[in-house]
Design brief:
Layout (H helix, E strand, L loop, with lengths): L27 H10 L4 H19 L4 E2 L2 E2 L4 E2 L2 H6 L4 E4 L4 E3 H8 L5 E5 L5 E6 L6 H11 L14 E5 L14 E5 H4 L10 E4 L8 E4 L18 H13 L10
Antiparallel strand pairs: 1-2, 3-4, 4-5, 6-7, 8-9, 10-11
The structure holds zinc ion.
Zinc ion binds next to strand 9 and helix 6.
Pfam families: DUF222, HNH
Organism: Rhodococcus oxybenzonivorans
Protein name: DUF222 domain-containing protein
Length: 254
Amino acid sequence: AKWARPGMNNPADPSSPTGDAEHPTVDSDVLAAAAARDTRTTAQRNHDAFSAMFRAVLESGILGRHRGLPATTIITMTLEQLEGAIGGVATTASGGLLPIGDALALAEQAHPVLVLFDHDGRPLHLGRRRRLASADQRLALIAADGGCTRPGCAVPASMCAVHHVTDWQKGGTTDIDGLTLACDACHARVDDSAAGWATRTAEGRYPGRTEWIPPPHVDPDRRPRINHRHHPGELIDHARRGMRAPREGGDAVP
Ligand SMILES: [Zn+2]
């Protein structure tokens, strides 16, 4: 009720005080003037108070870190989406969808990170306003992989760890080219046993992506596969190609 008092925490009024209405730093004259301008319903004021409280928790830092990054909302959108401003959805690292307009509203208080890709979707450059040290590679992988890279796995990036495509003990590097996102359950399937999966960096149509090679009991031919679950554009492209050239459509999306 204190945070939702008329005049408090009103996002439509830049002069509206933020936080607790009874805090000593809140000027009573400023609050009275803001209350006189406040046309929000009680429900809207409660909503805005809740939103302000969540923001205060996020900014306080008490949420700590999660898998090497500060616990916060990570939203991915392309430059086309950014320039379009309205229409379409951005994706979050936990697999959620967010209207671009809402994502831009959040971006006012965000740390924007620019990841540049080559035509095959491989990260070329990471630009950021504030240096995040070792977290940089994780951000680039969230943008490049979107989630677990094992074929068919829908686990989002927030629940994945960074893994070496080639085992570090076998000479795998920690360069971005040698890293990929995988959930714990899928990563546990990678081993040298007869029932284990193998991973390697793809060439061909999706260069730079992580290919998963199934064990013989899953596929006797051990054909490498790529996960398209977090890249819906690839599935749409493939469906379009299939419609235009049904005879060439024989190479099913692996
Ligand atoms: Zn997985």
